[in-house]
């Protein structure tokens, strides 16, 4: 049975607080709340209860914990990560950025770490402010990584540094364990994958005894970045498809992972496009018509993936590459010669890219419905709800 999107969202909002109460009473397991809500809504159950905050002060929750429904966020906007509840969050975040920057300038980066921890106890653990949690997680990741590198500079050998590349993963994992911010779990996974790729690269250089291995074999760089991209994308899919209704923090974790995976996937494809012609480089005059066509095809494939998964990160990550490839296509087709100046050509490219983005943005919902209708039911039933 199919439901109108607005009706489906209203039903979900009505059910979520009740299921949350059942979870707190120990009647429903934490990891079963989102599937239960989805099941009940699909069967037409609706209580009409107004949405209530699902996390009181001091409750950290987990990636499986449902998130409070917001009246302004409907299913059509289901990708939106929950990091802004109002201008209150924005104001506090501005204060955090300015204050921590000043503190680092007056003292040192080391002074930022205890400040971030103290502020996280109040703003993240108690008040559960989402946008400040993003800022504090980024500040903690950057400050702690820089602090470790500064303290150990000149004291470790090459392999010790390889081992230390796992430090951000460890620190972000601890931060997530304490504060349960979705971005901290995503960054922990991303830093872990990056450290593994770095370790594999160092291992290859050690086995071959060739310090110029990646200079002489540039395809290895593409392969390692591709490995990172695939690992990030697979993990994002795991979180995304396990919360098809996007009512838990798993969806937010997937958002941040997709944000890292999308440009990494595009970088891998573009680097492979240029491998056959070592003399050519990105955004250089040596780019051929075939290379530009391949780049456009890669960006289109990413956009298609983003539409199917209902993730806009795959669209935005390829805009720069798409614009440049479009310029090459105009040059090779002799169209660029029709314009009187390079400025005019630039504005034409910007207009074309803007038109593509606006068309996708305005017609996102309708286009996604059409694409989902083409897919087999078994595949469609595993993708995020539309």
Descriptive report:
- The protein is 69% helix and 0% strand.
- The protein is mostly helical.
- The longest helix is centred in the middle third of the chain and has 27 residues.
- It starts with a helix and ends in a 6-residue tail after the last helix.
Rg, Cα atoms, Å: 24 Å
* Low-pLDDT sequence parts: 1-14, 46-59, 68-76
Span from first to last CA?
A: 13 Å
User: Structural class given helices, strands, pairing?
Assistant: mainly alpha
Bulk shape: globular
Secondary structure tally: strands: 0
How confident is the prediction overall: mean pLDDT? Answer: 78
What percentage of the residues does DSSP assign to strands (E)? under 5%
If helices are DSSP runs of H or I spanning 4 or more residues, what is the number of helices?
Answer: 17
- In helices, the fraction of residues equals 55-70%
Order of helices and strands: HHHHHHHHHHHHHHHHH
For the largest beta-sheet, the strand count, sense and barrel status come to: none
Name the descriptors.
386 residues; globular
SSE blueprint:
Blueprint: H1 5-24, H2 33-42, H3 87-106, H4 109-126, H5 130-151, H6 158-164, H7 167-179, H8 182-208, H9 213-216, H10 219-241, H11 249-275, H12 289-309, H13 313-316, H14 319-332, H15 342-362, H16 364-374, H17 377-380
Helix pairs in contact: 1-2, 3-4, 3-5, 4-5, 5-7, 7-8, 8-10, 8-11, 10-11, 11-12, 12-14, 14-15
